[in-house]
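[recover] target loaded
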C-alpha cells in the first residue's frame, strides 16, 4: 500500500492538479536476459519481448518496467522502498531481497511493472533507480 501511495504521489507531482491513477500491476520474473534496467513500454511488441502479460491499453496508458538481476538461484524478489518525483526527474529506490532457501535454476531477472496514464508522460524526464545507499542501478530518459 505504501508503494502505491508513493507512486500516486509521483504521478500527481508530474501531472499537476489532475487526478491520475497509477497501478503497480505486477511483480515477477522473466527469462529475458540482460542487466538491470528501467524500460518505458509504449507498444504491445515491447511487452511481448519481455515475456510479460499485462492488460495495458497503449492508446491510453504506457508501462514502466524495472528489471533487475540476472540470478541463477530461485526466490529473488524486488522491493520498492520509495518513489519520488519532481517536474523533470523520477527517483526510485529499490533493491532485491534474497531468498532464505534458494535452489539453482535457469537464469532469470525480476521485474516490477507499473501502468501509467499517457497524461503524465513528459519527454525529457529522467527516471533513475538507485539502491537504498544511493548506488545507481539503472537510468533512462523519456523520449
Amino acid at each position: 500500500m505504501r508503494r502505491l501511495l508513493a507512486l500516486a504521489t509521483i504521478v500527481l507531482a508530474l501531472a499537476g492538479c489532475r487526478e491520475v491513477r497509477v497501478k503497480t500491476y505486477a511483480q515477477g520474473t522473466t527469462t529475458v536476459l540482460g542487466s538491470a534496467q528501467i524500460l518505458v513500454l509504449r507498444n504491445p511488441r515491447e511487452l511481448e519481448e519481455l515475456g510479460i502479460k499485462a492488460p495495458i491499453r497503449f492508446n491510453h496508458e504506457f508501462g514502466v518496467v524495472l528489471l533487475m538481476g540476472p540470478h541463477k538461484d530461485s526466490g529473488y524478489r524486488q522491493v520498492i522502498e520509495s518513489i519520488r518525483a519532481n517536474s523533470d526527474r523520477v527517483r526510485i529506490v529499490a533493491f532485491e531481497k534474497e531468498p532464505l532457501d534458494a535452489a539453482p535454476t535457469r537464469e532469470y531477472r525480476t521485474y516490477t511493472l507499473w501502468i501509467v496514464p499517457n497524461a503524465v508522460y513528459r519527454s525529457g524526464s529522467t527516471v533513475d533507480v538507485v539502491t537504498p545507499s544511493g548506488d545507481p542501478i539503472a537510468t533512462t530518459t523519456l523520449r
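[recover] notes: The CA atoms of residues 39 and 65 lie 5 Å apart.
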